[in-house]
Amino acid sequence: MSDKILVTGTSVREELLKPLVEAGFVIDNPTHLLSEDELAAALADKAGYLLGGDEFATAKALQAAKKLKIIAFLGMGYQSYVDADAAEKGGIAVTNTPGTLNNAVAEFTIGLLLNSTRRIHQYALAYSEGKSGKEEKQRDLANLHVGIVGLGGIGTRIAEILRWGVNCSVSYFSRTRKPAEEARLGLTYRPLDELSESVDVLIVMTPGNAETRGLIGRRQFDKFKPGLILINSARAEIVDPTALLDALSSGKLGYAGFDGFYEQSEIANAAKPHIPTRLVITGHIASLTNDARDAMANRAVASIINMIKFGKDPYRVR
Fold this sequence. Notes:
five-stranded parallel β-sheet, 318 residues
């Protein structure tokens, strides 16, 4: 009997699943968001799982997956979608797709940044409502000091665009210092507190997990220059929501751009009065390009074949 593969989400084109079929696998691709119980039932007879939807592979869902050998996560931040400890306990490998979405997310982040520095969305809405003429002067991005929190693949690509394309000053904080990138791009490393108080723009581009939740909190907000612009294309929870809302209300924060926001309705409701004059939010779509999604899918498919057929894959993270 052929091994079965579960593919969730709708972003993987059928054509890109052909290597799995050619390798002898049977594909199950439900297009709706699976509940925990539905996911548990779907995984019960599967050898592989391409996680391309918004499901969370909980310990309960994985307990039923006695045949499962691999969860191939479509993206980087698998920690937000997989109980990795439960997977490891069950002998289930977890892979991700590094490098495949660097350009897409970096470009989108620069778009959020330009919108925030020049108020493009705000003024476009005003113009469409016949309220133009009250625009205020903004600042050239090239004359701003930008700080990046997290200098992984995406953070590095953002730094390249800012340094080579815009020629602005860029500093960064990362858990691991990157001397080679400092020399190549002319970056300055600063501890997080020092970075927070020295920059005009702060871009959050670090993985969202238990260690980084609330990383940008009251301590950092208190150090911000008045009018600082905050861009978060990573996980909303990396920024403390209470500190964010207080800074928006007080005017301490000049503008904020988020790709994806907090799930709690009370936070979302409290943020609404600041849209679009101080805040723009998009629906976690930074990587939503054909190029990025196809590259992610190709890598995830290859990882499934590698793990099931050969027991190893270079993109295994757990």
